[in-house]
Amino acid sequence: MRAVARQTKAMKVRLASAGLLMVLLIQVVPAPYRIETRGAEADQSIDSNPDVPAAVKAVIRRACMNCHSEQTEVPWYGHVAPVSWLLARDVEKARAAVNLSRWGGIRPSLRAALAAIACEDVRIGRMPPASYLLMHPEARLSQADVDALCKWSKDLMSRARLSRRH
Length: 166
Known about the structure:
By secondary structure, this protein is mainly alpha-helical. The chain has helices at residues 2-26, 54-63, 83-97, 108-123, 130-135, 143-165. 21% of the residues are buried.
């Protein structure tokens, strides 16, 4: 009985050692994704857009900008592979969907459509993603946050329709 217990313990130690060695070795593997910060013009950011209400900007800063902008703040665990790879991939996908650092360069009708999509995503709980909220609970949206984003979205859609008529 003791021999089996010793073998089991030795196997657990070997597995733990192998796992630790793999984590250490993976740090030297070139990352398939990297978070790159391209120098966006400050006046292009949604943050500097006077047409975006202050309440909406506050929600966007707290819950969206970390992934959907050039202002990504990488936490300590975001520098450790393979978490760094996953984080960089997620940020790359988020920026491809909408880069809020480049909001000013998007034509108004597309901005309205993107805001409508954002409204739907936050309304059904798709954004911010649950995996993000685990490490960033401050990004959780209240009903008031969702209402503010969706009201802004509707206002943008109305303005876009009016501008097409004229």
